[in-house]
Specification:
Low-confidence stretches: 1-20
Structural class: alpha+beta
Helix content: 40-55%
Distance between the termini: 60 Å
Order of helices and strands: HHEEEEEEEHEEEEEEEEEHHEEHHH
Number of strands: 18
Strand order of the largest sheet: 1-16-3-12-13
Oligomer: single chain
């Protein structure tokens, strides 16, 4: 565009310098003629571009609405109010939460015999945290350790920690923490004096020993070393696994956060209750099902309304779009479609069984009385409709969303969007070509008119000279 404006300006300047003998703006005339020559074609292409952009926008909105519905429904089933919410009778013993895609069912008993513990050792007393600790290297080796012995885990390499010259007890604690080995250290001020305390991770496999290699010029680190039965330092607690029973079955875990003992649940153990098992059960999601059916009806109506507007024969951006027509047809049959083919005889298997119905205009309506009757008759069967498996309400909506977004299917919204994108790119290329052709014509006309203007100017100059000569001849 900038080049075209510069070219037009130069042409007008040229005509002006030639005298503009005709009195006509030849550059503007050339520009207007070229624009008129290509106006109809440019307008058609611009209108087509606008229509394609509107179709892409409408189809993308519908596809996005379907994806949003499938995603939100999946989240509610996996982790939200539609998921089976676990409840433990004795909350002091453990907390329970859903974990993973498995949907737990039934009731369980939990008896915690021992909590997982970390190994904790303390050094002999020092005068203060600023006491000199010596220099050299401390080495942590890992494995199973207790007061009687140590079995090293050779799969875990030892970790050497350098202790600089002049280090204090506080400096040693900082060096151990900086190594990030899973063993933490702090300085404790006790009634017996200041002691260096080391704590490992929970679980019997996370025991450790501490070796010391002193700098002969600055001894002292040996006082911090610890081995079973070495007499140096003190073992305050040995590392151990959690021990518990689920439904009377003995189990262990390396930590107090347990997954896998009950499929689909995460247990965070907090106290023991040996001899007094507590129960774990699941709240029925009846209230959540009522809520989600209302929300589902509203969401389907929103999409159905957008579909009606987009496919309107007179004003719809997708009036003749195969993807939009296919989705609208699917919506028309959605309430009565079999979505849980494996359901027991008499159990709900269609959305209509939960009170959803389709009206003549394609909108949806929920019959609360029918939903209540289904819950009263077979609450478990209704709950089975809300799973993340291969069948059910979520799988049906998710499948619709995936089909609608399939780019390789010419009969889907995704296929339509891809086709409209291709057409839009071609229209854009055609608009560019037309603009180039228009500019070429304008340049040719400007050049021709400049020549004509020059000739007219010369003729007018000659005529003016002759008039002046004749006037001189006729002067008295």
């Amino acid at each position: 565009m900038e080049t075209a404006r510069t070219s037009t300006s130069a042409a007008r300047s040229l005509v002006s310098q030639l005298g503009a003998g005709s009195g006509v703006d030849m550059a503007a005339l050339a520009e207007n003629i070229a624009a008129a020559q290509f106006a109809a074609r440019t307008d058609r292409l611009a209108m087509r571009s606008e229509a394609l952009e509107a179709s892409i926008s409408a189809a993308s909105d519908l596809k996005s609405m379907m994806l949003s519905l499938a995603s939100s429904l999946g989240e509610r089933i996996r982790f939200g109010d539609l998921s089976p919410q676990p409840r433990i009778a004795n909350g002091a013993v453990a907390t329970v939460a859903l974990s993973g895609p498995v949907r737990p069912q039934g009731a369980f008993s939990l008896e915690v015999l021992a909590l997982a513990r970390s190994q904790t050792i303390a050094s002999a007393p020092f005068a203060s945290a600023a006491s000199a600790a010596g220099a050299g290297t401390l080495t942590l080796r890992f494995g199973a350790a207790d007061a009687s012995g140590f079995a090293e885990d050779t799969s875990r390499p030892p970790v050497a920690i350098s202790i600089a010259s002049g280090a204090t007890l506080a400096d040693v604690a900082a060096a151990i923490n900086g190594a990030r080995t899973g063993v933490s250290a702090y300085v404790a001020n006790t009634v017996d004096g200041t002691r260096l305390v080391l704590k490992g991770a929970d679980g019997a496999a996370n025991g450790f020993v501490l070796d010391a290699a002193e700098d002969p010029a600055e001894p002292g680190l040996g006082a911090l070393a610890w081995h079973p039965a070495s007499g140096a330092g003190e073992l305050l607690a040995a590392a151990s696994d959690a021990a518990f029973r689920v439904d009377g079955l003995d189990m262990t875990a390396p930590g107090n956060i347990v997954t896998g003992a009950i499929p689909g649940l995460r247990l965070t153990l907090g106290a023991t209750n040996a001899g007094a098992p507590t129960g774990i059960a699941f709240d029925k999601p009846d209230a959540a099902i009522r809520s989600v059916m209302q929300d589902l009806t509203a969401a389907l109506n929103e999409i159905a309304g957008a579909l009606r507007a987009a496919t309107d024969p007179r004003s719809g951006e997708l009036a003749n779009d195969p993807g939009a027509r296919a989705l609208r047809q699917t919506f028309a049959n959605l309430a009565s479609a079999l979505i849980l083919p494996g359901a027991a005889e008499g159990a709900p298997a269609r959305l209509v069984d939960l009170g959803l119905a389709t009206q003549r205009d394609g909108s949806f309506v929920l019959d609360p009385a029918r939903l209540e009757a289904a819950l009263a008759r077979d609450a478990d069967g209704v709950a089975a409709m809300f799973t993340t498996g291969l069948r059910g309400i979520y799988a049906t909506i998710d499948s619709l969303s995936r089909r609608a977004g399939a780019v390789g299917d010419p009969g889907s919204l995704g296929g339509s969007i891809a086709r409209y994108d291709r057409e839009l790119r071609k229209v854009s290329a055609d608009l560019t070509t037309v603009a180039e052709q228009q500019e070429a014509m304008r340049a040719r006309l400007t050049a021709r008119f400049a020549v004509s203007e020059n000739r007219i100017g010369s003729a007018q100059s000659t005529l003016s000279f002759l008039k002046n000569q004749i006037a001189a001849w006729n002067a008295p």
